[in-house]
Amino acid sequence: MSKIFSGVQPTGDLHLGNYLGAIRNWVRLQDDFDCLFCVVDMHAITNWQDPAALAASTREVTAALLASGIDAERHIVFNQSQVPGHAELAWIFNCVARMGWLNRMTQFKEKAGKNRENASVGLFAYPNLMAADILLYKATHVPVGEDQKQHLELTRDIAQKFNNDFKCDMFPIVEPLIFGAATRVMSLRDGTSKMSKSDPSEQSRITMTDDADTIAKKIRKAKTDPEALPDTQKGLEGRAEAANLMGIYAALSDTEVADVCAKFGGQQFSAFKQDLADLAVAKLAPIQDEMRRLMADPGHVDAVLAAGGQKARALAEPILAEIKQTVGYLKP
Ligand code: TYM
To answer: Can you give the pLDDT at residue 62?
Structure first.
C-alpha cells in the first residue's frame, strides 16, 4: 500500500519555498494516497526555541496546512511530539546509522556553520529522527523540496541496513517525490542561495503572513539583472535571479517556465514584477484569510492536532511493537 509521510518545522513563519516546494504538492497528493502530515516540533528544538514561540508556531503551521487545503478528516495532521514512537525509533536508528553517513550531510554542515563543536547532538542526529518519522508508519513516498533529497537517501540507507542487519523485510525503500516548477525556491536577494527561514534578511523571503503591500514591496525590490527577460528557457542560463522569479511565476500560475518565457520574453523586469506580485497576492490572500480565521480559534487547531495524534499513535503502535521484537527487546 502506498503511503505518504511528510513534515515541516514549526520554527517561525512559513515562506513561499515551503508552500510551493512542499505544502502545495501535499494538497495535490491527497486524492491518490493515504497521507500523514507532521509538524515536526521535535526537529525544531535541535536549535533552541523559545517555548512560547514554539507552541505558537506549531499552531500557526498547522493553520497554514489546513488553510492550504490539507484535509485533516481524511488524512492525519499532527505534531510529532504527540507520538512517542518517533523518539523510540530514532534511538534505534542512532544505532543503525553510521557516523560517516551523518558526517556527509550537507544540511548539518550548513546549519552548524563554523562552530560545529557547539552544535547540539540533536542537530547532528536530526536525519535519523527524520528517517524514524517516515519509517514508523512504513511510508513509501515522501513529497519534499529539493533540499531534503540527501536526507531521504539516508533514510533509504538506514532502511536497507536495518533490513540487512536483522535479515528481515521490515522497511520499504522510500521514494522521494520532488516535483513542480519550484522544487528549490531561491532567495529574493540572491538567486544562488535558497529561500530560507534562517536568512537574516526579511527581504529574502515572502512569508505566508506577509500582507499584500509587503509582498509587492519585496518582489519590487527583488534582485535582478539589467537585461530584458528572455523568451526561451535557455536564455535563463547564468541568470539565477531571473530564473528564480520566472520559476515562482510558473509555479504560482501552474504553467511551465517555458510558457512564462514565451509570455514575458523581451519585457523589462518592472512590468513582470508587477504581474508577479499581483499573482502572488491573488494566490496567497485566500489562504491567509483562512489562516487568520483558524488562528482566532486555537482550541479548534489544538483539537485537530490531538485527533491526528491519536490516529498516528494507533498506526505507529503495532509497527513499533514489530520493530522492537525484531531488535530483540523483551515484551513489557
Ligand atoms: P523544512 O521545515 O525546512 O521545510 C518544509 C518543506 O519545505 C521545503 N522547502 C523548500 N522547497 C522549495 N524551495 C525552498 N526554498 C524550500 N525551503 C524548504 C522542504 O524541502 C520541505 O519539504 N527536515 C524537514 C522536515 C521533516 C521531514 C520529515 C520531511 C522532518 N521529518 C520526514 C519529510 C519527511 C525540514 O526541515 O523541512
So the answer is: 98
Give the torsion through C-alpha atoms of 85, 87, 92, 95, to 10 deg: 170
For residue 35, give the C-alpha cell. 497521507
- Which of 114, 149, 167, 197 is catalytic? The answer is 197
Strands (E), 86-182: 141-143, 175-177
Name the β-bridge partners of 8: 39
270 DSSP assignment: H
Cell reading at 327: 531488535
- What is the residue with the minimal CA distance to atom 1 of ligand 1? 8
Ligand 1, atom 18: closest residue by C-alpha: 18
All domains in the chain, ordered by first residue: 3-183+297-327 (3.40.50.620), 202-292 (1.10.240.10)
pLDDT (0 to 100) of residue 116:
93
Contact 208, 68 (CB under 8 A): no
Residue type for position 35: C
**Cα dihedral across residues 193, 196, 198, 204: positive or negative:** positive
Q: What is the CA radius of gyration of the chain?
A: 21
State if residue 194 touches ligand 1 by the CB under 6 angstroms criterion: yes
Query: Considering only CA atoms, which residue is closest to atom 33 of ligand 1?
Result: 6
DSSP for residue 13: -
Cα Dmax for the chain: 70
73: amino acid identity, one letter: E
Which DSSP symbol is given to 214?
H
Question: Which residues of the chain carry a pLDDT beneath 50?
Answer: none
Q: Does residue 242 have its Cβ closer than 6 Å to ligand 1?
A: no
Mark whether 197 is an active-site residue. Answer: yes
Q: How far apart are the first and last CA of the chain?
A: 30
Read off the pLDDT of residues 15-27 as tens digits, 9 standing for 90 and up. Answer: 999 999 999 999 9
All three cell numbers of 82: 504527540
- Report the distance separating Cα 156 and Cα 318, nearest Å: 22
Instruction: From 5, 18, 155, 197, give the residue whose CB has the most ligand 1 atoms within 8 Å, as the site to mutate.
Output: 18
For residue 167, which phi and psi values (nearest 5 degrees)? 45, 60
| Residue 43 in contact with ligand 1 by CB distance below 6 A | yes
